[in-house]
Amino acid sequence: xxxxxxxxxxxxxxxxxxxxxxxxxxxxxxxxxxxxxxxxxxxxxxxxxxxxxxxxxxxxxxxxxxxxxxxxxxxxxxxxxxxxxxxxxxxxxxxxxxxxxxxxxxxxxxxxxxxxxxxxxxxxxxxxxxxxxxxxxxxxxxxxxxxxxxxxxxxxxxxxxxxxxxxxxxxxxxxxxxxxxxxxxxxxxxxxxxxxxxxxxxxxxxxxxxxxxxxxxxxxxxxxxxxxxxxxxxxxxxxxxxxxxxxxxxxxxxxxxxxxxxxxxxxxxxxxxxxxxxxxxxxxxxxxxxxxxxxxxxxxxxxxxxxxxxxxxxxxxxxxxxxxxxxxxxxxxxxxxxxxxxxxxxxxxxxxxxxxxxxxxxxxxxxxxxxxxxxxxxxxxxxxxxxxxxxxxxxxxxxxxxxxxxxxxxxxxxxxxxxxxxxxxxxxxxxxxxxxxxxxxxxxxxxxxxxxxxxxxxxxxxxxxxxxxxxxxxxxxxxxxxxxxxxxxxxxxxxxxxxxxxxxxxxxxxxxxxxxxxxxxxxxxxxxxxxxxxxxxxxxxxxxxxxxxxxxxxxxxxxxxxxxxxxxxxxxxxxxxxxxxxxxxxxxxxxxxxxxxxxxxxxxxxxxxxxxxxxxxxxxxxxxxxxxxxxxxxxxxxxxxxxxxxxxxxxxxxxxxxxxxxxxxxxxxxxxxxxxxxxxxxxxxxxxxxxxxxxxxxxxxxxxxxxxxxxxxxxxxxxxxxxxxxxxxxxxxxxxxxxxxxxxxxxxxxxxxxxxxxxxxxxxxxxxxxxxxxxxxxxxxxxxxxxxxxxxxxxxxxxxxxxxxxxxxxxxxxxxxxxxxxxxxxxxxxxxxxxxxxxxxxxxxxxxxxxxxxxxxxxxxxxxxxxxxxxxxxxxxxxxxxxxxxxxxxxxxxxxxxxxxxxxxxxxxxxxxxxxxxxxxxxxxxxxxxxxxxxxxxxxxxxxxxxxxxxxxxxxxxxxxxxxxxxxxxxxxxxxxxxxxxxxxxxxxxxxxxxxxxxxxxxxxxxxxxxxxxxxxxxxxxxxxxxxxxxxxxxxxxxxxxxxxxxxxxxxxxxxxxxxxxxxxxxxxxxxxxxxxxxxxxxxxxxxxxxxxxxxxxxxxxxxxxxxxxxxxxxxxxxxxxxxxxxxxxxxxxxxxxxxxxxxxxxxxxxxxxxxxxxxxxxxxxxxxxxxxxxxxxxxxxxxxxxxxxxxxxxxxxxxxxxxxxxxxxxxxxxxxxxxxxxxxxxxxxxxxxxxxxxx
Length: 1240
Description:
This protein is α/β, with parallel strands linked by helices.
């Protein structure tokens, strides 16, 4: 069906092109005579007019082409524009008519590059031309005025005695704990209130209106956008795919109506628009496109075009940088953008201290006695300090009439696209994510094949007879197939939970309805269910020896397919109801347990208590088991009477679970912070602070904090050796990505760093700068030894000696962009833990505690030292406080060298100033400190002593001193011919990045990397590096007698201490395990009440046996699965701590009958030993006789003859069960030591 449709579209496009061409030719013929006299007169003038005539020919052609487009119907006219001609891939003079909805990727890219060559200048020109076109036709664009009056937000809190940490007891009191640090100014709360994003539990008073409309009269989530400080993005998608999906779902707003009105008015006025502007406006006015020119534009102006096809990434997967991630969420502008704003709102302690025009803000604060320093940015000054109000009050007193509002200013529709378009967008994204996670699905299928082969050889047909005894084995193999296919769907649970935060954000902003998310997820899993069911059936059906009729083969295949579909839909439903990994995993296993117990195989339906037999018909597994057993045992060879097969029940459950998944997505709330609990001490401090604020200034006498000068004079009590790091001709290569290979890149390896030479010295704060993609983080990872792949060439020396990574890790600290910390321990405990493991064993406990206290004070964490770290965006300390904690954790190891990777990314000016003050304090202790930095403010740049500047492609273009007010940097670049001079009071960092950009290089015809290599500065730096590459006289190469600072026992104690705190303060983890055991015990007790006293035959015994087996299996699996999310959180922390050389992985890791060839599998299976121990201890010495397969036997002899269980083996069983945890701990230790799944 696809081919005819495509063909029709192509025919329409061809006929449209022919129609335009004919219209153009007709217009040329019609106007030829009218232009003939003009052409003749032009020919008789001087020769200079010839070139003018050729230019006019192009203009005439454009006018004629435009006239032809204007004759077309409106809906066609709005999709056609004039585009640059292209012949054999080369651009030609003149224009051609194109359909803007069908521009190719390269055409879009070249077009945007043409419009915006130099972002700062050309973007303004483009926007000016857009406004100019709108103004020409007298069209007024819709605007929104947001008003708020007497707005107040209140939250409930609970006061407790002592330190309110989250424990199991606090959870049982229905209160989750969050210990707050110093109160913020309320910016986030105000923004959430203005966009309708406040939690429903908060008490909100006052009025908020948009153009006079209240929140309940329009859709504020579609009218405004709230951009959180936390980046919630799908890590598997690329930057371009993320923006394309967002643009596709959010629609185009009122741009289509505006474009239609502009086109109508231009046609009436006879105005011919500039072709490029027309193309851009029309291309951005078409909704529902998979790839839009708007995405290319956003990528260009945000500087994300260089990483457009790079995945976003996360802590375990290499992706874009922190700065790029922030710009992907929203543009992260330079400090100079303050000048672009008209009004300023300044807040402090939840109150507005200034709201008015930008031009009046400095006068206002000068009147209050605060003067802005000459070289300080105004925005930075306002964040550090705290007749306009009357004017604002007068404006607000005049009500805004709704009739004055433009119809397109506000959004009154919940969704931007039609239902079918939203469904297609979600379907495309789901298919993309499945392809990105193809390893998971392939691995599941391969795993299923391996288990199917094992099952086939376990129940091989040569050992199976058609009799009563072997019927149980046939039934067992069928039952195992069912539970295997059900368990295979459990991976869907973790995948769904992982994506829920992004879903909640997009759902709450009405990107799409819940069904548009759930239906594609269900449809696209069908092929995988068909594949898995077919693989299992094909490998096991005839191998085990089931009934040979073909129709029974296909029926079993269809039955397993339904079971698999039911399973993955059930796990998706559970994940949407409980979007927490640990809790969802436990609930999923509890659901499986109930299905197994009521499924009819573990305990037969007649053996169920009469008052619980209804549960049999509520278990999907019961229907599957009935269908599978009837399919096999009603075959002619079993000589049974036939009855109808049951599959309709499974289909019903599949439908119910998918509907439940959709409903849960629609109505479930995103997990948020619970009611705050604060200590009595914190409450007293808050009240005291509020009382002081109400006292007149002359009477108030608050304690004066320690001055910056005093803090800079702090010296650490522990000695260390200042170290210099030098590097020469460092190069770094990685394997060429597949995408580049497809694009024709000829080399096997891609070079990311080119001949980098330099040095970092003690007492000097060095900045490593460059545009995104310059290789700043790559260079730092190479120098610090953090790269896990690629090839490194060149020479790196520490104190003049070649770098040895194991030794180097002991004397260096590395502060990553992503602040990775254990969430359930406090700030002080995090620092104490690092000091315990990283300081030498010779330092006693008291000195260590004093050193920790000094570091906490130096890093300015003393006020929040008892706060839990928490999870980013969910609980705990703020982003800026996490940055400081990361620095403290590294500094407490008493390193000689500290690397900081973009420590100020994502922080406001005040927070960045605090971080840089901390860095300066560290440098003043004569340590070597290096920071990668991205577009710093003037204040941040002034803190640095030296700068290494890199350009895109990993090449160095400057290395040297900054000088007073960056004078030496400015002098170097201004001496290069053609480089524009810096403006007065302009940020040198912004100017430097602008004048060294790729577009400036191309414009000036310069290569800054070559110029640096040829400069006197480079020669001077080479001499310095050569000198520092030689060991100082009398010095010795660094050497430590032991690999780790602490011995194995101290490592074990420290790890056990932290793990104990982390587990105890994880109430969800502890509670779900407790609930699982209690609920499962109650279920087993109810189902098997007094069964042990009523054993009369093999079925009674098998009921108890099956129940014990299921209990052992699920108790172990639940403990394993519930701890996995916890371990996954800690795993990235372990990688960081392992790189730092904190501890050895060993210390962390310690905190039926079958074929003879599978006998070894029995002896290495913990479940088999657990089952043997339980059954033997309970029934191994009971001599009561029961009827077994028609003969009388004692229970103990039946246990020994049928299962091989002897009562005398209990001692061996106990030893083996004790050995398994030790074995798994050793395996975990080896995995932590040898494997690293991070990709950097």
